[in-house]
Amino acid sequence: MILTAGGSSYSTYADGTGTQYRDLTWVTIDNPDYAPGEERPALQGVAVFRRLEGAWYGNERVYIVSTSGGPAGQGQVFEYDPAAERMRVLFASPDAAVLNNPDNICVTPHGGITFAIIGPWRRGSL
Q: What is the CA radius of gyration of the chain?
């Protein structure tokens, strides 16, 4: 899990394009796959995301898709730079007509970002 600067929990749910997160570190969650009925692990101090569904490493960055995050709830694409320990919202959809709940993501050999959308069979790219 990503630990935010200052050690307080942070929700990325409604963050828009350009939001930046700095001085990030990683923490180990002892039991990330807890079973129904088991107590949820304490997640104090970590960043939380809405419906993460796809991730890809390319261009020395990690790109992550939140299917229903962002101000409009239509999806976010995050870019994590492991060397600098920084992350940003690369894109948050302002409307379903622009980007409607992206799922899988990949980075092309030339640096383009492509993603899939479940539902009406469409593809998109940034």
A: 15
